[in-house]
Amino acid sequence: MSKLLDGAALAKELRQQCRQNADVLAARLGRKPGLDVILVGQDPASQVYVRHKVADCEEVGFRSRLHRLDEQLTQAQLMTLIRQLNEDSAVDGILVQLPLPAHIDSRAVIETIDPAKDVDGFHIHNAGALMTGAPLFRPCTPYGVMKLLEKAAVPIRGAEAVVVGASNIVGKPQALLLLQAGATVTICNSKTRDLAAHTRRADILVVAVGRARMIGGDMIKEGATVIDVGMNRDENGKLCGDVDFASASEKAAWITPVPGGVGPMTRAMLLVNTLEAAQRAAI
Ligand code: NAP
Fold first, then answer.
1. Alpha carbon distance 203, 183 (integer Å)
2. Domain range for residue 197?
3. How many domains does the chain have?
4. 84 pocket-lining for ligand 1 (C-beta < 6 Å)
5. Ligand 1 neighbour 193 (Cβ under 6 A)
6. Model pTM score
7. Is 53 a catalytic residue?
8. Residue 151: inside a domain, yes or no?
């Protein structure tokens, strides 16, 4: 039976650290670390996410501001707001909640954010710098996964790591972070032939696809560390991951639960990134 990689507990520790550091920084800066969150439109899932982000900031003593903007807003108007926030010295982090309405070019909008305030780590500057090894910010989900592995002292150097899913926000940056930490990395996507042949080789398996319970215990190596990034609803409407937890936990040495694994870490790493931005501003 596996041991749980408890993201909820580690996220709580990280929030406490953020709280302490925020107080010290506030005394030095003469203001609280600040995150501005931009929400365009009424997407229900996005509304929940931004509420959490704002509440998390308040819990740890950051200043947070939510900009709720009309669905019909033009791209130019959105960019104008971002440029104003770029210039505002009380703003350490800027986060544009995705997805944006179809008439807005998300890529162009993200590139408008000052890379030094890009706490999601999605700006091309930070994505490119991640490739060469020294980004200002790492995307929150893969960064949180690395913290979970570190906390459990999972050996990464020389390990066989397989990342299933190759998105710009999870799979690709995850693979780069594992590579930098010394793993031998394989990235799988929807065209991968014989997925199980890859997953069964993995000492560290990270799954970020968005298909309920697609990875069963039969696809996992005995003793592997299994990180389930997926967030899905099963046929009964229950939250579940991309990994079949019951069968996988018979094989894995370490496994993340869903909920309570990667999700809380993603939220906590946004705070860590915002704090890092404020610390740089204080130098
Ligand atoms: P995404 O942008 O839709 O990317 C999915 C990736 O999975 C793509 O690279 C796709 O391949 C690949 N894929 C699809 N079917 C596959 C298959 N049968 N075998 C192997 N790979 C396959 O998704 P995402 O934004 O990375 O999110 C993935 C999941 O993680 C979702 O459930 C999302 O809700 C969740 N998520 C959770 C958190 C968290 O904090 N817990 C954060 C972010 C995302 P192609 O490239 O070939 O299309």
1. 10
2. 140-262
3. 2
4. no
5. no
6. 0.98
7. yes
8. yes
